Amino acid sequence: MELVISTLTNRGVGLGRVALNLPQADSLALTAPAPEASKDGPALGSSAERSEAGWVVMVPFTLPGERVRARIFRNHKNFSEADLIEVLTPSPHRVTPRCPLFGRCGGCQYQHLAYAEQLVWKRQQVEELLLHMAGVSFPVSPVIGSPVEFGYRSKITPHFNPPRGDGTMPIGFLRQGTRFDLVDVPYCDIATDAINARLTGARAEVLARRDQYKRGSTLLLRDAGGTVTTEFDAVITETVGPLKLRFLARDFFQNNPFILPAFTAYVSAQAAASGARFLVDAYCGSGLFALGAADRFERVAGVEISISSIVFAQENATANGIANATFLASDAAAIFGDLDFPAGGTAVIIDPPRKGCDQAFVQQLVAYGPRTVVYVSCDPAPQMRDLAGFLAAGYHLTAVQPFDLFPQTRHLECVITLDRA
After folding, report:
1. Do the Cβ atoms of 181 and 210 come closer than 8 Å?
2. Domain enclosing residue 63, as ranges
3. Are residues 80 and 6 in the same domain?
4. What is the pTM of this model?
5. Per-residue model confidence as pLDDT tens digits over 280-293
6. Is residue 407 part of a domain?
7. Catalytic residue numbers, as ranges
8. Are residues 41 and 124 in the same domain?
9. Do 137 and 20 share a structural domain?
10. What is the DSSP string of 181-242?
């Protein structure tokens, strides 16, 4: 079928609508209850609204305003999925993807969209998620873009499986639209030059031992200032502004070093803006936010479930001459009961895993009642879900600032600031 793409979802997929001409279509396809807003994007409206607006068709690698030819391959109760066959009328913002694997490799969603427009759409997607998932109409600040649009990733993790029956052994990332099939990726355009230089040799080493692998495995390539390691237990040193931070290659650390100074400085400024004297950094990792903000507070406490990260956080504090920060290895959901910081004078930074905070943590945090909460998330959908709980507990939203740590992809970091009434 042919259809016009009207918008992009927060999953990076083009959305179009087609008229329903079959008289039985409404009873067959549109009688299911309207879905709740979900991480896949805004709800599609009631049955009547969807019938009037047309049936939703999702088409990846398309852009708003484009007329395309697409082939539907799967129907759901509220929408259909389709493959792009041909772009009939291209968007003026369409550009030629740099990577020859774009459209097959599932790593990037936006290489066909000019970077300035990527930032425009990412801001709009945060605004829509805020409205549909938290019920809040609030101005979202323009996305702060990465200084480097390609060659920015300081860590990649290509996957591989034992050789196939035909002898082939792809080493790369998931194929677009699949959960298990891998695309062979000999070069990644969003990885740093140093990683790509090392990737050739790392792939050759795996292929030379191909008969030894009986199950799937993962490579790790981590770049620290031009030196690339493939050892999971190697110690990495990353420079962020005035800080030098050490951590294990396998541990979590933001992987766009080019935007990190501006990103961490903003989080620190938001935490200190209310005049809080004390800072708690839940999910602190090796101390990135806690140590970056320590000079703005009398005392800082960091909490992290990873023992190895806490060891490095303590060592990083000493190495950087920071004496007012302490770190504790504990589940972030069990920290506020023993905390001796007065709630009214405390700011809390949270940077949970992609799935967001669990309900027990949110309840404990709002029961403690800090003056300010700065919530950092690599997925705005669960972040907006959690926001509803903070608003119900009496917090006010004061700022929403997205950062594009992941150019050419649908992903972004979003920082929201909440003050207690």
Report:
1. no
2. 2-94
3. yes
4. 0.89
5. 999 999 999 999 99
6. yes
7. 378, 413
8. no
9. no
10. PEEE-S--TTB-HHHHHHHHHHHHHHHHTGGG--S-EE--EEEETTEEE--TTPEEEEEETT
Q: Is residue 88 located within the same domain as residue 127?
A: no
Contact 142, 123 (CB under 8 A): yes
Tell whether 23 and 136 lie within a shared domain: no
- Residue type, position 13, single letter: V
Final residue of a domain: which of 94, 109, 129?
A: 94
Please tell me the predicted confidence (pLDDT) of residue 45: 42
Q: Give the integer Cα–Cα distance in Å for 241 and 262.
A: 9
Number of domains within the chain:
2
φ, ψ of residue 342 to 5 degrees: the values are -70, 130
Stronger pLDDT, 226 or 330, i.e. the higher one:
226
Domain assignment present for residue 244? The answer is no
Amino acid at 72: I
Residue whose token pair is 């740099």 = 98
Beta strand 79-89 pairing with 395-403: unpaired
Q: Would the CA dihedral through 199, 197, 145, 247 be positive or negative?
A: positive
Type of residue numbered 122: K
Task: Please give the single-letter amino acid code of residue 237.
Answer: T
The span from the CA of 107 to the CA of 38, in Å, is 22
The answer to whether residue 206 sits within a structural domain is: no
Bridge partner list, 4: 67
